[in-house]
Amino acid sequence: MKVMIFVCGEGLGHTSRCISIGRELVSAGHDVHFGAYGYSKELIERKGFKTHEVPSEITLVGKAGSLNLKKSILATFKRGQFLGLIKIRKLLKRNRPDLVISDSYFMGMLSAKSRGIPCYLIVNQSNMEEFFRGKGVSSKIVAELVKKSYTGMFKIVDKVIIPDYPMPYTICRKNLEFKENTWKKVFFTGPLIGKTFDETTAMELERPHVLCTVGGFGYREPIFRKVIEAAALDNSINYTLLSGPSVDPASLGTLPENVTILKFIDDQFPYMKASDLVIAPGGHSTMMEALSFGVPMITVPDLKHNEQQNNAFVIEEDGLGKKIDYSTSPEEILENIRLLIHDDKYKSKLTEMRKMAEELNGPRAMRLLVEERKSR
Fold first, then answer.
1. Distance (Å, rounded) from C-alpha 255 to C-alpha 234?
2. Tell me: the pLDDT tens digits for 301-337?
3. H or E stretch covering 238
4. Which domains are delineated in the chain?
5. CA distances (Å), origin 185, targets 84, 161, 181, 248
6. Could you please report the per-residue DSSP string of 120-143?
7. Tens digits of residue pLDDT in 86-115
8. C-beta of residue 176 within 8 angstroms of C-beta of residue 284
């Protein structure tokens, strides 16, 4: 079966879960092609997949730690990116896939349907209009347009894929809102991650160990530095912090002996398996990875980013971790770290989530769904 996977490149969470689908499909003998752009395309190519350049779809605009979705939509229209539909249609005409899987890349979905190709749409949010609520009349109008667009898209796709645990364990559940007819085509795969717990060999790290993926660039730098300050308050806990390629570790001054700074790691799963805690923003894919490995989380969602805020709220509500913000002190961060590392009730809950992820086997569930269409 020939499958085309389109990936939204705004955030590598979309990329990582699509790579897991591609790997599973290829291992079963299917012909898989990717449509991607930017660093997402480079990463997919490095994994050895057939990859095609596609136009970027969304221009993200924001400052001071918050995303301005209204300005992002306007900037996207001004760049004329939706004219890329013509390019995508030509790509589909050349490759003639049996099925299109589009991870939040709506040009791919619209182009597929315009050519009569079945399409599965992957999303972990269906209520983007939440970004605009309470922000003035113009924002309210944009919110209604966004909601109508989403409703129409969900109506025409063949399946709506949620890469999360099934209800009531769904982490993104506060971000999901569908009409009754759409719910009938919703499918929860379970976490779609690049490696399973059993496939991963843990790094040799000093325990207890904290993996921090917040990054030290831009508006996230203050919380990054606070984690370093928290580390200095208790040298019995060890840390690996990912600073990002734009940050020179030397600029951070003298580091505590229990802190290691890395700019980037190509494969974070060995670190995750060797860690007792993950500190990360509120991105959905990182949450799925941590939970699949049975690791509790401290989440630092971006300001005014409703999706991340909702995800982080569920993590705390379900007893899987703690939610903090940019005003949290180093002392409070350390208090939460100690709690999550040493409290047995968190360990027990996270073990349940890891075992559930193993049973669900998201990539396999997605492959079986794809093959079910072939057998029709």
1. 13
2. 988 788 899 999 999 999 999 999 999 999 999 999 9
3. strand 238-242
4. 2-196+361-374 (3.40.50.2000), 209-357 (3.40.50.2000)
5. 28, 8, 7, 47
6. EEE-S-S-GGGGGTTS-HHHHHHH
7. 889 899 999 999 999 999 888 888 889 889
8. no
